Amino acid sequence: MTTPQTLYEKIWQSHLIEQRDDGSCLLLIDRHILNEGTSPQAFAGLRSTGRRVRHPALHLAVADHVISTTRRTAPLEGRVKLMVEGLAQHCAEFSIPYIEHLAREQGICHVIVPEQGYILPGLVAVCGDSHTSTLGAFGALGFGIGTSEVEHVMATGTLVQQPSKTMRITIDGALEPGVAAKDCVLALIGQIGADGATGYVIEYAGEVCREFDMEQRMTVSNMSIEAGARAGMFAPDETTFSYLKGRPLAPQGKTWDAAVETWRGLRSDRLARFDREVSMDGSSIAPQVTWGTSPQDVVAVTGHIPDPADAPSPERASAMKRALEYQLLSPGTQISDVRVDRVFIGSCTNARLSDLRAAAQVLRGNRLAKGVTGLVVPGSGLVKAAAEAEGLHEIFLDAGLEWRDAGCSMCGGGADSASEPIRVASTSNRNFENRQGRGVRTHLTSPATAAATAITGHFTDVRHFL
């Protein structure tokens, strides 16, 4: 009899080329996404050794991090011009498919890859960006890689990796209205810590996770990396197949039917053993707000900022003190008393159509609080078009927010970094020091909580608006 396997183990074994004496493995890579950040050095490495890209058609390139969300059609200038035009030239030289920065489909790579059907269940996909874990929502193994690894994948279609341990996160029960997938994953990180899943690949299970739509699953998989995980995955099911069917790069006709039959077997065996199990009660999860400089620094919107004196270790107490000093906050403060200067709704975590709908539902008929500014940045041109077709952009504009073109925007700083040390309610995935501008104090929330906060000017329980 064969040993029962987890979903991760099935995908790993099906892509294993060889296992070496030191335990490292040579894996077959099915998909590779390139952006303007890590690829220039990789292309230079290929040229210096006279090598070509082994399977050009299996790569997909997009410029996202440096693209302006305010003046998309304006001529590219300076460093941005060099990076974007350089990526286009590299792709033309090596015959790699490239989505032009002015194309209707352009956007954040982790948003447009699923939209195009480029990621499919059972595949192994990599990108020079840690939030490639987003793609695990489709029952694929997606993870970020470094620059030298980007070159290796392009040249060989393979990658050397160490196998990961397995962790299953089971969320049962039912979420209250107003509690989002973002709240679930923030609550999880708060429970296990920013390094709680280091060395693991997470598989999500339970009633709550099965009920998530694909965009919610992408949010959770995206932020798995913030718990230290190598990747986060959901077993593919009818929700997955319904989302993918008819996508431009997905299989068609009889090939689609055959693929779905294969994908139905991509789930953990009933007796499969996980190295670690974590359970959560979905009914006890409230809307979440981070207070510090790590996603693990999080409390319910109804809660208070913790005291370092209560930390479980001196190291944790020291980290908490530094975070509070940076955030200009005091222990015991009720999080709902903390006022904000700006709201950012966007990023590869929360810039899909359902995210914009959730924010618009709260903002409809309301205005931003005095002194608060805000911007809404869709994750792709297709998301923007769909939102405008529903009139969501009018709700945002009427409320006093800016409606931008697609892109990464102020998630990681760049052109939309704040020019002064303001406090931001952000739907992105990281609240590190200086990430959204020097001295900027970032608090992570769901889109709905960000919208409620924009109206009141302070962190607010969105359930009061629903």
- How many strand elements? 19
The largest sheet, given as strand count, sense and whether it forms a barrel, is: 5 strands, parallel
Strand content: 15-25%
Total number of helices: 15
Number of domains: 2
Order of strands in the sheet with most strands: 5-4-3-6-7
- Give unreliable regions as ranges: none
| Morphology | globular
Terminal CA distance reads 53 Å
Q: Helix amount, in percent? A: 25-40%
Structural class designation: alpha/beta
Name given to the CATH architecture of the largest domain: 2-Layer Sandwich
Radius of gyration: 22 Å
Give the CATH H-level superfamily of the largest domain: Aconitase, domain 3
Kindly report the CATH topology of the largest domain: Aconitase, domain 3
Outline the structure in words.
The structure is a single chain. This protein is an alpha/beta fold. It has two domains: 9-286, 2-Layer Sandwich (Aconitase, domain 3); 288-465, 2-Layer Sandwich (Aconitase, domain 3), CATH 3.30.499.10. 32% of the residues lie in helices and 17% in strands. The chain has 15 helices and 19 strands. It has helices at 7-15, 39-49, 78-94, 109-115, 147-156, 181-192, 207-211, 214-223, 238-244, 253-263, 314-327, 353-363, 381-389, 392-399, 447-456, and strands spanning 16-19, 25-28, 31-34, 59-62, 98-99, 124-127, 141-144, 158-161, 165-172, 200-205, 231-233, 276-281, 288-290, 298-300, 342-345, 373-376, 402-403, 423-426, 441-444. It has a five-stranded parallel sheet. The chain has a five-stranded parallel sheet with strand order 17-16-15-18-19, with helices on one face. Strands 11-10-9-12 form a four-stranded parallel sheet. Strand 3, helix 2 (39-49) and strand 4 form a beta-alpha-beta unit. Helix 6 runs parallel beside helix 8 (214-223), helix 12 crosses helix 14 (392-399) and helix 12 runs parallel beside helix 15. The longest helix has 17 residues, at 78-94. The chain is globular and about 55 Å long. It starts with 6 loop residues before the first helix and ends in a 10-residue tail after the last helix. The model has no long low-confidence stretch (mean pLDDT 96).
